[in-house]
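seq:
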Amino acid sequence: MTAGAVAAGFVVGIAFLIIFAVVRIPPHPILATSWAFPDLDDYLPLLQIRIDGLKEVYSVGEKLDFAVAQKGGGCAYPEMIMIKDLERGGVVWEFNGTQASFLLFCPIVTNYADFEITWHSRDIDPLVMNQTGTYAVVAKNEHLTVQKEFVVVG
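struct:
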């Protein structure tokens, strides 16, 4: 490359800088719109968690099939979904929803109060209870906890 070509490129670059500094380019209509994210605190009164499909009675070894739906909480599952043993105490199974957030795949939501995300037990290895007793599925996030009980019989 010759010195003349470098100088010409430099002059063209300076010319573009001057043109873009002087000529106002109108913004694209979508980019001109304010993109303020909604304040989640405005939606807390509308936050709902449901446990759907859980039967009241299961047999030992029967697969648990239920879903936990969170509405109005954004694009993440409830922080924790667990099964507690109500007779002997303790947690026998848990799912950490904060580690399975779908924020990367979240659609553009204009109203978080209408957005619902659902977790299904069928999406994991078979979830079965091998001991009789009284249990509860508990789903919770920072602002709300929901519990639904079931019994496992022999």
